[in-house]
């Protein structure tokens, strides 16, 4: 597909609009000066989060977060966003080299990454459970039943570490077969190369739906581990990290207030409170503190909607996967997520 790039005229406009606010020598200032956001994609299809449709367009939860970020920075993502396809293992080198500006790629927050790779994590935006799917013909009812068999996993992921640790601690002798690309992992599993496939539960459910015969595959009940997924930026750049955290906060705040892509103009025209007015840029402050225009949150909601809309459209009831939101809902709906205070 064609990368989304910024025209010269649009770049000049974006520079005039945003750079005056940005601090020097931060990734935020670099992105605004360049006039486009380089955001992580996937080197294949990671269903529900980063995939390419029949028309060659990117879609998914992570892609919508990339779009939201670009819209917040520049007013809209169209012409200002480039999705850069990378493998799991390429995430960190690509971020550190500047080939991408931010990793929005369902990346787990682990101690080693936090302390050894000079990375900084945003608030988690998704909680995923690691589970294993097996061929129904194996008659496996738990991961222990795959003893003597094999399990496929993606290289360079925390999933690989979780699987190895679980097998060792439970004395399960299963061969771990590693693949570089997510598509290769699933193709190999569905082709019978492996008895089991480990991913986090939402991805397994999506993969099962896509199978030629979903009933031929069973997701085993064992939860190997829970993982908090966050947005990743280089360590030592608090301004850029602040933008990621307040982008997520904006999406949750809009959902909590009932502000959607369909009604955001009504809320902006007649804000029900001074806080909502500030949030949508009617009164100043919400963007300027971050080095952005004050209507940055309005632009995000207008383009991609609130977090609930993003979830339902890509992996929830509005998608082929129909995954219940569960723990990933707002706290008012039984989940663990909540917006921070806007003052």
Q: State the major sheet.
A: 7 strands, mixed
Number of DSSP strands?
11
What integer value in Å does the Rg equal? 21 Å
The separation of the N and C termini measures 42 Å
Q: Please, how many helices?
A: 13
Class of secondary structure makeup: alpha/beta
Outline type: globular
Mean pLDDT: 90
SSE pattern: HHEEEHEHEHEEHEHEHEEHHHHH
- The total tally of domains equals 2
Assign a percent range to the helix content: 25-40%
Uncertain spans, ≥5 residues at pLDDT below 50? Answer: 1-23
What share of the residues does DSSP label as strand, in percent? 15-25%
Characterise this structure.
- This protein has 343 residues and is of the alpha/beta class.
- It has two domains: 8-85 and 237-333, no CATH class; 127-227, 3-Layer(aba) Sandwich (D-Maltodextrin-Binding Protein, domain 2).
- The chain is built from 13 helices and eleven strands.
- It has helices spanning 8-18, 27-34, 61-74, 91-97, 111-116, 158-169, 182-190, 201-210, 238-257, 264-269, 274-279, 296-304, 307-314; strands at residues 37-40, 51-52, 58-59, 81-84, 103-108, 119-135, 150-154, 175-179, 196-200, 217-219, 225-234.
- Helix 3 (61-74) crosses helix 9 (238-257) and helix 3 runs antiparallel to helix 12.
- Mean pLDDT is 90; it is low at 1-23.
């Amino acid at each position: 597909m064609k990368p989304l790039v910024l025209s010269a005229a649009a770049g000049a406009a974006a520079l005039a609009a945003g750079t005056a606010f940005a601090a020097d020598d931060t990734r935020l200032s670099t992105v605004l000066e360049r006039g486009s956001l380089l955001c992580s994609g996937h080197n294949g299809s990671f269903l529900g989060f980063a995939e390419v449709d029949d028309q060659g367009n990117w879609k998914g939860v992570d892609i919508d977060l990339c779009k939201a970020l670009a819209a917040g920075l520049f007013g809209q993502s169209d012409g200002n966003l480039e999705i850069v396809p990378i493998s799991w293992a390429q995430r960190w080198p690509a971020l550190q080299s500047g080939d991408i500006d931010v990793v929005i790629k369902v990346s787990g927050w682990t101690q080693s990454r936090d302390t050894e790779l000079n990375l900084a994590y945003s608030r988690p935006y998704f909680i995923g459970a690691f589970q294993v799917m097996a061929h129904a013909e194996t008659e496996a009812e738990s991961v222990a039943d795959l003893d003597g068999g094999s399990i496929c996993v993606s290289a360079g992921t925390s999933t690989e570490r979780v699987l190895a640790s679980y097998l060792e601690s439970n004395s399960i002798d299963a061969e771990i077969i590693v693949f570089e690309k997510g598509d290769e992992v699933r193709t190999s599993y569905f082709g019978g190369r492996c008895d089991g496939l480990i991913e986090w539960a939402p991805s397994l459910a999506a993969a099962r739906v896509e199978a030629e015969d979903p009933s031929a595959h069973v997701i085993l009940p064992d939860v190997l581990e829970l993982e908090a997924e966050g947005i990743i930026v280089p360590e030592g750049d608090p301004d850029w990290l602040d933008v990621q955290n307040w982008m997520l906060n904006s999406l949750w705040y809009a959902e909590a207030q009932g502000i959607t892509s369909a009604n955001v103009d009504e809320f902006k025209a007649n804000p029900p409170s001074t806080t909502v007015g500030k949030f949508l840029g009617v009164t100043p402050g919400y963007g300027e503190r971050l080095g952005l225009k004050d209507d940055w949150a309005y632009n995000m909601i207008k383009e991609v909607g609130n977090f609930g809309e993003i979830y339902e459209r890509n992996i929830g009831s509005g998608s082929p996967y129909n995954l219940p939101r569960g723990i990933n809902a707002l706290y008012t709906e039984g989940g663990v997520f909540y917006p921070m205070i806007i003052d």
